[in-house]
Amino acid sequence: MKNLALKSLALRLRRLIWLSGVVCCVGLGSVDVVQAREVRVGVYPNEPKIFTNSAGKPAGILIDVLNSIAAREDWTLEYVPCTWQECLDALKAGKIDLMPDVAYSGPRDQVFDFHQVPSLYSWSQIYSRAAVPMASTFDLNGKRIAVLGGSIQEEFFGGMVAGFGLKVEMVPAKTLNDVFALVSSGEADAAIANNRFGDFNAPRYKLVETPIMFQPSRLFYATAEGRNPDLLTAIDRQLAAWQQDPESEYFKILKKWRGEGPTTLVPPGVWQALGVLCALVVLLVIAAAVLRWQVKVKVRHLVAAQAKVLERTAELASERDVAQRYLDIAGVMLMALDSSGRIAMINKKGAQLLGKPEGELLGADWFAGFLPKDEQSTVRQVFNGLMSGEEKLLERYENRIVTASGEELILAWNNTLLRNESGAVVGTLSSAEDITERKQAEEKINELAFFDPLTGLPNRTLLLDRLRQAVTSSSRNGSYGALLLIDLDRFKMLNDTLGRDMGDLLLKQVAQRLITCVRTEDTVARLGGDEFVVMLASLGRSERDAATQAEAVGEKILATFNQIYPLKDVAYRITPSVGVTLFSGQPIEIEVLLKQADLAMYRSKDAGRNALRFFDPDMETVVVERAALEKDLREAVHAQQFLLHYQAQVVGDSRLTGAEVLLRWQHPQRGMVSPADFIPLAEETGLILPLGHWVLETACTQLAVWATQPEMAHLTVAVNVSAHQFRQADFVELVLTVLHKTGANPQRLKLELTESLLVSNVEEIIEKMFALKAKGVGFSLDDFGTGYSSLSYLKRLPLDQLKIDQSFVRDVLSDPNDAAIAKTIIALAQSLGLGVIAEGVESAAQRDFLASSGCHAYQGYFFSRPLPIEGFEAFAQRV
């Protein structure tokens, strides 16, 4: 707020002056009768916060709150109906004393006084008709948006869409009901309203809420500047007391209005409208009689013109028959399409190719009737561009068509545009020749040149061409690729013992097995003899990840090849030796790559065959280290080499409320292994499931122990749950079983979920959360603001708390963006009735900033590092 501290001080001085005046009056003379304070209050329509009900009386959340305050302060309230702008003008002029439901803004602070404790929280939301879907802010571009004239939403939203570079037409209205009516009638595409009015009234106008929300607001009762400080003092006193007590009159009023819906009234003007409608009907009857006489006159003229048309039609039919005979003797297909793509003319040759009589083809949709389904949309789009002048005519091209019998043909086309007298394009005229047999012959020649005749795989020539393209692409985008050379161990023995026919049969089966081991975009080729090559492209920019993926394919090839080969009546076994080399952005000769893969393959042979080796020793080391870490991790889960550390969660200066448990791995040789090294590996291998279960059970066991210690019994424990865990079908049963087994109080357990959990299967996630919530388990949304956040889903989740990610807290004192994000998260949590905690708090200055912004729960090194259980319990005794 504008100089809020100075403003508050000035307001207090005015209140003291007013009180001094009262004291002076009391000292100067006695007053026999103390009259009630008369307060004039503006009422404008904004259900359910403030409005005039069907009985003509003021109603709504803020009216009920003010009535309760007036009863306690001995005020007499006089309600003055007005529109939003009229109310503001009256308040400024002193014609009314109080205006409810006023959101604070800098310009308003220049002319109005506000109390300190907000009377209500709200935010702005977009509502639209169901037929006008809006999923994001960018869907507003080019739309008409209805908004309350003179409101904060009008000013804020205009600046917001301008910042996005969007063009939006603002349609101001006097009342929020008028705003919704404009959208319902189609005069606007969407409406802006506060969420309370919108959720309450949207069904009446057949509008739906959209996921577009903005501008969390605090609402106040306002007075003209310098007037009525006693009213603001009394309002602050009552609100401050009520909002500290969940059973107060304030919360009873909120609960009362939470379930009420709007009532629909029949407007009194309907009967007048019906009378006007009847008068219009009479006028229409008279007009119809006049039109009937005019039609008779026109008909006489049309009959005469029709005779001339019939005579000319006969002449044109004769000319058409002559032209058709010339078309039919042509040796190619001739066809004309109109501007919508329907057949307007076709000759006998064309009808024969398509397999239908000419009469049935005229008027048929060319694209839907005779093009392959996968090409219809694209070709129609190009044709429409020709008709509109946006595309240039391709005079010659070849494409596939499908005849009436389902046969697929390849036609070579020659095309020209048809134009009318004014030069406008009205269609196309084309000739086509069937070149199917010629194309099939060309494909056969190409197959012999680039494919192995035995296995059907690409041969060396095609492999080298694709490899050059892959290396060029890798040099351009910096991604890695891999080349795997596979040689069959002791293949010559098969040829010598069972014959070359059996050897050829084995090579065919090897080719098929290789294809099943790779992606469709990868290349499998046969170099010759018993050597095969697999080329993997687009393996990412990380050398380590590329090596891991190449190794996985190589291991899959080894496993697949080690299965029995059925060679007629012989069950045969043969193993491969695999050599792998990587290539990336560095230019390299193709033959050098093949040589590297060949050398690596021979290293596999030297290692005893049936093995895989990398050409790069360093890369092989990385793969081996990862495999070793995975092996150690599996052993660690079995040997229970893990332990939990506890990091304190505090409120205010140092009041301890609980702890977050953090997993640590104490390896006998490696020492303490960083979670950044083993948690992603546990997620990838599925070991996170047994690990997560152990963490949950250990934490709940500790909760049960603390329950027996009075000084620790109040503490909560927060446990991180991965997306893999939560998506288990029996996750709810697993958690409840652990709680029952350990005897832990579910109300002391808080599960921390990440935003990535909300990417898919949201309905299932919500159902599981409600099932656990019903048993007392709490939920905190971890790292809020760093991932996927849909406010429409956020409202539906049974959350207790939002956790501000440490990446925002770290620079909150130096980066205005991080500070703004932190404040927004705090305001959002308050508006949704959620708690908020900040992690990564490392200094008193950070804590003070968060406290001044409304966040009073913290976690971080400023209070305590993560500690073993003994250290944490000692810390708890000290604070």
Structure explained in plain terms:
The structure is a single chain. Helix 30 (844-852) links the parallel strand 31 (835-839) and strand 32. The radius of gyration is 40 Å and the shape is flat. Helix 2 (61-73) packs antiparallel against helix 9 (249-258) and helix 17 (491-498) packs across helix 18 (500-516). The strands form seven sheets. Strands 24-25-27-28-29-30-31-32 form an eight-stranded mixed barrel, surrounded by six helices. Strands 5, 6, 7, 8, 9, 10 and 11 form a seven-stranded mixed β-sheet that branches. It has 879 residues and is α/β, with parallel strands linked by helices. Helices cover 47% and strands 23% of the residues.
Write the SSE topology.
Blueprint (H helix, E strand, L loop, with lengths): L3 H25 L8 E7 L7 E2 L5 E2 L1 H13 L1 E7 L2 H10 L5 E5 L2 H4 L2 E3 L5 E10 L14 E5 L3 H12 L5 E5 L2 H9 L5 E5 H7 L5 E18 L4 H14 L6 H10 L11 H59 L4 E6 L4 E4 L1 H7 L3 H4 L4 H5 L2 H16 L7 E7 L5 E12 L5 E10 L1 H15 L9 H18 L3 E8 L2 H8 L1 H17 L6 E6 L2 E6 L6 H19 L3 E3 L2 E3 L3 E8 L6 H17 L5 E3 L2 H23 L2 E10 L3 E13 L3 E3 L1 H11 L2 H19 L9 E5 L2 H4 L4 H12 L6 E6 L7 H12 L4 E7 L6 H4 L6 E4 L1 H5 L5 H16 L3 E5 L4 H9 L4 E3 L9 H10 L1
Parallel strand pairs: 1-4, 8-9, 8-10, 22-23, 25-27, 27-28, 28-29, 29-30, 30-31, 31-32
Antiparallel strand pairs: 2-3, 5-11, 6-11, 7-10, 7-11, 12-13, 12-16, 14-15, 15-16, 17-19, 17-22, 18-19, 20-21, 24-25, 24-32, 25-26
